[in-house]
Amino acid sequence: MSEPVIGFKTFVKTWRAPLTSFITVAILGALADQFANGYVQLIMLYVCINTILALSLNLVNGFTGQFSIGHAGFMAVGAYVSAFLSMKPVIFGMTLTFLPDEIAYLNYPFFALAGGAVAALAGYLVGLPSLRLRGDYLAIVTLGFGEIIRVILLNTEAVGGARGMFGIPSPKAIDIGFATLSPFLVNYLMAAFWTVFTFMFLWRLAHSMHGRAFLSIREDEIAAEAMGINTTQVKVRAFVISSFFAGIAGALFAHSTHYLNPSTFSFTKSVDSIIMVVLGGMGSLTGSVFAAIVVTIVPEFVLRPLQDLTGVDLRMVIYSLALILFMISRPAGIFGKNEWTDLLAAVKARLRPAGGNGKE
Questions:
Q1: Cα 280 from Cα 73, distance rounded (Å)
Q2: Cα–Cα separations (whole angstroms), residue 69 to 27, 52, 231, 246, 267
Q3: Residues 174, 259, 168, 255: is their CA dihedral positive or negative?
Q4: Pairwise CA distance, residues 158 & 163, whole Å
Q5: Which residue, of 115, 223, 262, 359, has the greatest Cβ tally within 10 A?
Q6: What stretch of H or E contains 41?
Q7: Which residues, 6+ apart, have CB-to-CB distance to 328 below 8 Å?
Q8: Which residues on adjacent β-strands are paired with residue 90?
């Protein structure tokens, strides 16, 4: 019996959302490339990086119900691995090179994948023994791992030690025949691709059989075990996937800033990612995206001008106070556990005429 052929309508329905999202984000990047300054362009890259970081952490903290506070450690692994490979390191007396300079931009997806893979391996090594723990104990273990990674990087001269790594290359301009893509646009398109891919991958994962296993552990781990779910294996799987995407975010960060320092990946960086997850809503991918945008943009474009007017740096005071007040008034986060499809359904329900089914 021949395999069923996927129809064109099914194909369009499956890929319409990710393609539309990527095209929209790409258009924003093209407009920024033409009309925005370097500072705004860097903030746009940070938005993509923070979105990937928040989405990846939400898989563990939101969907699986665990509490990891060492996420910056996995980001650091991905960042340093990608940066190390891109700087043509000398290993055993041989210079490690990849593609020639003419098509060197094709190296960067490989560097990002390598950083994500090593971060995923680190997540497996940490998660396998520690995810047998629960609650506060797991938080302490992940916090310790993040600090271990930072101290190792701080004392490893091969990656710059306390000085950090500087001069990290990023994709150069690409001539595509009818146009030339600037270095920013090439870097941004790569970040936009990974942002959309991360969202769509986690969306499909959350609505799959594996996603139901994650949710069952979040709701009641004992009941999940009673139903035959290997809870430790499922938690490790979520941890590895989350670590992979955190490594991708780290690789993008390395090639966007051109400089890495161990202090960048301190406990504060992990707290920032937790804030995005909690603010957006635990278990809401849409909330993570929205919160990452807000947390990245507001301190720079709203609170920094206030500092220029008053002459006093009150950004973190106002930012922290706003977070406290918001979490008191809405502890479930902006979206709670809802997604954009739930909001769309609610809007359609409001627009439907009362007492009817919306059809004439």
A1: 22
A2: 35, 16, 20, 13, 8
A3: negative
A4: 11
A5: 115
A6: helix 38-58
A7: none
A8: 95
Quick check: 241 and 68 in contact, CB under 8 A? no
Between CA 217 and CA 234 the distance in angstroms is 9
Helix axes 71-86, 107-130, angle to 10 degrees: 150
Exposed, middle or buried by CB within 10 Å (0-12, 13-18, 19+), for 229?
A: middle
Q: For residues 281 and 293, what is the distance between their CA atoms, to the nearest angstrom?
A: 14
- Classified as helix, coil or strand, 132 is coil
- CA nearest neighbour of 50 among 252, 214, 315, 305: 252
DSSP string, 238-295: HHHHHHHHHHHHHHHHHHHHSEE-GGGGSHHHHHHHHHHHHHH-TT-HHHHHHHHHHH
Q: Tokens at residue 15, please?
A: 């890929």
Does residue 118 sit in helix, strand or coil?
helix
* Amino acid in the structure at residue 302: V
91 beta partners: 94
What gap in Å lies between CA 185 and CA 190, rounded to an integer?
A: 8
Q: Closest by alpha carbon to 272, among 307, 246, 236?
A: 246
Residue type at 105 in one-letter notation: Y
Q: Is the dihedral of CA 323, 325, 326, 332 positive or negative?
A: positive
Determine the Cα–Cα distance for residues 291 and 178; give it in Å rounded to an integer. Answer: 37
Cα separation, 112 vs 244, in Å, equals 10
174-175 and 90-91 strand pairing: unpaired
Dump pLDDT digits (tens) for 284-317.
999 999 999 998 998 888 777 777 777 776 777 7
Token representation of residue 123: 């997540």
Query: pLDDT, tens digit, for every residue of 158-212?
Result: 888 888 898 898 888 887 777 788 889 999 999 999 999 999 999 999 988 888 9
Residue 334 to residues 73, 87, 186, 323, 330: CA-CA distances in angstroms?
Answer: 27, 41, 32, 11, 7
Measured in degrees and rounded to the nearest 5, phi and psi for residue 33 equal -65, -30
